[in-house]
Write a sequence for this structure.
């Protein structure tokens, strides 16, 4: 483990009986990183995270956090990790305020100025019984709980479900600040645009196996996007032939549909000579990204 590696998985494998959880995961996360963990439903994201917290045990392989084996040192590690599970268990009949006091007492105190700051920035409602809060408002309490002890590593399992865009933005700022202070974040998602904005690197997992671990910039250069454009006049197909990365061109009178790999720059320069009415781009499906990888390897 090099000095700045805070997490290292080595051949980490989990079978639930005969059912595949994850297979032979090898990857590492560095101090100060926001590390994205991207994969579709059932890929193995939650399974991996639960093994890191020692809630479930691997079938084979090892995981280390801060150089310590996660099975042998789970109690010590839990003091240094903040975890947001997919379906956080909160105590329903108490208020958010009582809940945070309870969490603080469990750990022998906390920095209340920081907790108040988190509560205010995440716009938490801490005066009503947790049971009576909406899904998104419960999620915000669970996020504050994961962060309130300033953990050295924050493990977040699909944290943005239910957050509105403004709060999501504030949450991402908080995560960036925590990594600027030398802490690290692992963030699972099945939405590429979300990890793309926030993360330094991303691991892509599919059917329990790692497909790739990439810098975000490298991932973007392989990204396929579907583009649809309308023009003020009919357009000629010759215009779009031979542009870097452009494939599957369909032209219908004044409308263009195509797929583009990587940068939009060369296409935009060609269409700039035309009268453009509308441009739409679609988020690539994760499946398309996987295909791009398989074609590339
Ligand atoms: N307790 C369990 N018993 C049997 N199989 C399980 C169990 N938990 C998970 N699995 C299986 O392990 C695989 C990985 O599931 P996991 O929940 O880790 O995926 P995920 O990437 O978190 O998916 P999602 O995006 O839906 O949350 C799936 O095939 C799932 O059916
Ligand atoms: Mg999951």
């Amino acid at each position: 483990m090099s000095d700045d590696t805070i997490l290292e998985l080595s051949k980490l494998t989990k079978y639930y009986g005969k059912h595949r959880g994850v297979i032979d995961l090898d990857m590492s996360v560095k101090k100060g990183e926001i590390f994205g963990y991207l994969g579709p439903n059932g890929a193995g994201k939650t399974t991996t995270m639960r093994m890191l917290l020692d809630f479930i045990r691997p079938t084979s392989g090892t995981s280390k956090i801060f150089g310590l084996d996660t099975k042998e040192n789970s109690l010590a590690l839990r003091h240094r990790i903040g975890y947001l599970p997919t379906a956080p268990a909160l105590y329903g009949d108490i208020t958010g305020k009582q809940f945070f006091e309870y969490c603080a007492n469990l750990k022998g105190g906390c920095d209340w100025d920081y907790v108040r700051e988190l509560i205010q920035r995440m716009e938490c409602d801490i005066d009503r019984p947790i049971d009576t809060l909406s899904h998104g408002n419960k999620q915000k309490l669970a996020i504050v709980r994961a962060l309130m002890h300033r953990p050295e590593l924050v493990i977040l399992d699909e944290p943005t479900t239910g957050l509105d865009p403004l709060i999501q933005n504030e949450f991402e700022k908080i995560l960036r600040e925590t990594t600027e202070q030398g802490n690290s974040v692992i963030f699972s998602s099945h939405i590429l645009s979300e990890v793309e904005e926030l993360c330094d690197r991303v691991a892509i997992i599919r059917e329990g196996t790692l497909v790739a671990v990439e810098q975000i910039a490298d991932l973007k250069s392989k990204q396929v996007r579907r583009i649809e454009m309308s023009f003020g006049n009919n357009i000629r197909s010759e215009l779009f032939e031979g542009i870097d990365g452009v494939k599957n061109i369909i032209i219908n009178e004044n409308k263009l549909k195509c797929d583009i790999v990587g940068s939009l720059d060369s296409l935009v320069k060609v269409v700039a000579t035309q009268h453009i009415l509308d441009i739409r781009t679609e988020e690539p499906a994760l499946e398309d990204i996987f295909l791009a990888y398989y074609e590339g390897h």
The chain has a mean pLDDT of 91. Residues 5-220 form a domain with the Rossmann fold fold (CATH 3.40.50.300). The first strand starts at residue 5 and ends at 16.
